[in-house]
Fold this sequence. Notes:
Shape: elongated
Number of helices: 13
Order of helices and strands: EEEHHHEEHHHHEEHHHEHHEH
CATH architecture of the largest domain: Orthogonal Bundle
Number of strands: 9
CATH class of the largest domain: Mainly Alpha
Strand order of the largest sheet: 1-2-3-5-4
CATH superfamily of the largest domain: Fido-like domain
Amino acid sequence: MSKISIRFFNNVPVRAVWNDDKSNWYFSVLDILSVIRNEPSYEKNRNYWKYLKAKLKKEDSQLVSLTTQLKLTAKDGKKYLSDALDFDGVYMLTAEFPGKVSAEFLKWLNKNDETVDAKSKQKAYDLFDDSIMDSIEVGTVKGLQQIHSYLFSGLYPFAGQIRTINIAKGGFVFASAIYLGESLKAIEQMPDSTFDEIVKKYVEMNIAHPFMEGNGRSTRIWLDMMLKRSLKKCVDWSKIDKKDYLDAMKQSVADATWIKSLLSSALTEKILDREMFMKGVDYSYYYEEVSD
């Protein structure tokens, strides 16, 4: 099966798919046009691409021959054959739109994939492809440590290790390191059979924030594993807006109603679907990106 990926440029999703025949990533033409034309309308971008492609064909542009059709998942959840371009094709397409946005887009596309996020994201994909999740404990502190260790091993010296110092974020101080061991034991003993129980346990683990970095990316996988085991469901993270999620998690410290509503409305039974898992990883890492 082909690898799929969703990248985010200025909060706009750009779909990508791995072409096994070409051994290369291909990017949705319409998504790129949405970015560089600053046009959210699918219909307008599709019509513009028809016009531009006809114009380029008359000019015998190589760009037309570089365009290939691959199946991409649309907003309705169905797969459609869509025009896509590899890196060389993307360069040629953006050349038709000289300007600041195109330059920023190309710079973003060429961003160094040697970052911690890029490497750990690939490891997150491998959790599914290599069946590693089958060996991870569900709903336990050890299971969460296993997830964190796998994602960040070789990237952070503290991968899988419970922190020993206090941390804070956005003015909120997470569980004191002195009492963190006791807190984690209490959280582990919390029931996780129903949706409400699982979300409550997830919220408490977020408040504990047991690692120096990488808590959100690890605990969202931990949450999905509990949902899969107990409810035979998981979260379609693409249905949860980034700002809504972050705001709801902040509010959950005092009231978990909002985050419960967001998660409940995004539940799906596609627990064995590879693309659902990969998409979940893409959005999970997107939540952690800091906006400029």
